[in-house]
Amino acid sequence: LLSQSEVQRIVRRGVREIISEAEFITMLQSGRPLRLKMGFDPSRPDIHLGHVVGLRKLRQLQELGHQVILIVGDWTAQIGDPSGQSVTRPMLTHDEVKANAESYLRQFFKVVDRDRTQVEWQSQWFGQFTLADVIRLTSRFTVAQFLERDDFAQRFQEHRPIAITELLYPLLQAYDSVAIRSDVEFGGSDQKFNLLVGRQLQGMLGQTPQQCFLMPLLVGTDGVHKMSKSLGNYVAVEEPPNDMYGKLMSLPDALIAPYFEYLTGVPDEELAELSRSLADHSVNPMELKKRLAWDITRQFHDAGAADAAQQHFERVVQGRDIPEDIPQFAWAAGSAERRWSALLVEAKLATSVSSAKRLLGQGAVELIRLSGETQPVAGDAPAQDLRPGDVIKVGKRRFVRLVGP
Amino acid sequence: LLSQSEVQRIVRRGVREIISEAEFITMLQSGRPLRLKMGFDPSRPDIHLGHVVGLRKLRQLQELGHQVILIVGDWTAQIGDPSGQSVTRPMLTHDEVKANAESYLRQFFKVVDRDRTQVEWQSQWFGQFTLADVIRLTSRFTVAQFLERDDFAQRFQEHRPIAITELLYPLLQAYDSVAIRSDVEFGGSDQKFNLLVGRQLQGMLGQTPQQCFLMPLLVGTDGVHKMSKSLGNYVAVEEPPNDMYGKLMSLPDALIAPYFEYLTGVPDEELAELSRSLADHSVNPMELKKRLAWDITRQFHDAGAADAAQQHFERVVQGRDIPEDIPQFAWAAGSAERRWSALLVEAKLATSVSSAKRLLGQGAVELIRLSGETQPVAGDAPAQDLRPGDVIKVGKRRFVRLVGP
To answer: Does A1 touch chain B (CB under 8 A)?
Structure first.
C-alpha cells in the first residue's frame, strides 16, 4: 500500500484533473497492475516538452509496476481533431505510419520505460470494423451531447463547418479504450471530452470505466501560448544540447516554477521554496533558469552534455554583449516571404525601406542565434529561417529580439 | 418523343414536386430507359393507398419502357427514420427480411409491373462497407447541413435526442442511389431532404445527379392525418373487397377529388368536371364515392368483386338504418385497456359508469362494423378490437361513430 504522501505526489503534481480521483486511488491501492492508455497521432511524430508532462506521469506509474499501452492512431489520424477543417486527411500508408511510429517511439522511450510498454495499432480493431459496428457505436450518443464539446460548440455557433466525420473521432478514440481494456487514459486537459466518452462507452459495454488523467497544457517559450510545433514556441526532446539549453534560457521568468514542477524531479518542498524566492526577489532568476535548463538537458542527453551546454551558453551567449533589456519584435512564422528590408522597417530598426537597404548594403546587419552563432546578413534576400530567440543587431548598439507571434 | 400533354400528365398529376422538372423532362425525352429508384423498409412490409400514389407513377413510367429498381433497406431498417427515438432497432435476420420482402412484393406487384422491376438488397453494398467507406461518406457533409432537415431541426430545438446514427440514415439512403446509379428517386414529400442528399452525393462522386419525385402525402380515411398504419386511418391494398369498399365509403367528402386524382385513371377533364359538380352541389357525393370505391376495389381485386362489394354495401350497410348525421367520437388506439362502461361514458352514451353497466347488463349495446356485421356487446369487458368507422348503438335510437384520434 502506498503512503498518503506517495499517493499525493502521483495525483497532484503535474496533473490538472483526475476523473475520478477517488476511484483512481482505489484502483491504485488495489495492487493490480493498471493498463495506462496513451494515444499517439502518427501524422505528428514529434515530441516536445509539452508532451513530456504526461510521459513523466506514465513513467512514475510504471515505476510502481503499471503497464503503458501506446495506441498508434492510424485511423483517427485520417480524421484529425479538432481540425476546424471539414476535410479528412489522406490515410497514411502502412510504411509512413511505421516510420513515424519508429521516430515517435525513439523519443517516447527517452522518458517512458520500454520494458513496461505495449504498442497497439488501431488497425488491429478498426481494420475489421463493419458498418454494423459503426451503427452500434453511433447509436449510443446523441448529436447534442457531442455538440457540447467546447470546440464543436464554438464552431457550430459561429456557423463554421463540422464534418459529420468529426463526430466519429471521439467515438473511435473511445472504442480504443474498450479494445485495450484501458484502466486509465492520459491526455491534455483539452482532451477531457474525448476521454470521458471513452469512460462512458466502457461502462455501457460492461467494462470498468477508465479513469481520466488530464494533464496541464504547458505554456511554450513565448510565455503566452500552449507549446506547439506550429507556433514555433517549443523545445523538442531531440533538440541538440546547446539549442535545448539556450531555448530554456529564453523562457520568461514566470515559467520557471511551472517548468520545475512539471518537468523535473525537484521535491515539492524545494519547489515551494523556489517559488517563494522568485516572488520576493531573493534569488536571481537567471541562476534558477540555468539550473532548470541544466536539469532538462541532462534528462534528454546526459550530465556531461548539460555541463558543456551551460559552458557554451555562458561563454558564447552571455558573452555576446547583448544587453538584458532589448526590445522584442513579435514575428509571425507565416511571413517568411518578407524581405530583410521590410523586416527591419517593421522591427523599427530602420525608418524606411531605402535606409534599410543602405544598412544591408553596408554589412551593418547581423543575426545572432540562440546558440551564440553570429551570421552577417548580406543583401536584401527574403528573411527566412528565423527562430524565436534570435536577435537582430544593427550597427554596434541596436538590438531586437524575435519572439513568437 | 412524348407530346407536351403526355409529359404534363407525367409531371403534374399525383406529383407534389420534381427536382428538377426541367432536367427530368430532358432525361425523359432522351429516349434512354431510366432507372427509377424506390426504397422499401423491410420492417414495414404493408402497402396501403398512401404508398400507391407513388407506385402508380412508377407503373406509368414503366409503361413508357423505364425500369424500376426496388431497394430492400435491410441496413437502413436498423436505424429507423425519422424515429424520434435514440435507439436503433435490432437487425432483422436474413429470413425475416426475405419473408417481409416476399409479402411486400406480392402487394407491390398489384400496381407495379414485375417484368420491369429489379430488386436489390442494401446488403449487397453495405455488407462489405468498411470504416474507411464510412469516413469517406461522412466527410462530405456537415452536421449543420443535416440539422437543417425539418424533423432534426425541430428535435434539436426542443432538446429531444438525435442519435449520431440517425445522421447516417440519409447518407446510407444517398449511397443507395450511387450503388444502383439511380436516374430518378421516388419518395413522399417528407423525404425531400434524404432524396436531395442522394442527388448531391451522386454529383460529388461523378455520377449524373438523380431527379427527385416528391409525391403528395395522402390524407387517411379520418380526413385529417397522413394515411398511416399506426393511426388506423388506412386502406391496405390487401383489404378484402367489402372492407376496402366500406372504408372508402367512410371517406369525408373533401377527399373524393384528391383520391380520384391520385388513385384512379379518371381523365383530367373529367376530374375537373367532378370537382366542379361537388363544389356546386349538382351531384350527390355518395354517388361519386361509390364510383371511387368501386374503381379502387376493382384495381386491387376485379370488377366482379367490386360489384359484389357495392351490392353488399347497399344491402347491408346502407340498410342498417344508421342515420346520416350521427355524433362522432374521437377514439385513441392506445386506450385499448379501457372497459366498455368507461367508453360509453366518454362517448356520452351513458351518464355514469353505473348506468353504463346497467345498459350493458340489459344487452342494449351493439357494435356495428363497417362491413355491416353487428355484434352484441355482452358484459363490461375491455373494449378491444375497435376500428375507425365502427358504430356503437345503444337501445334503438342512439348512435356514435368512432373516428381516428
So the answer is: no
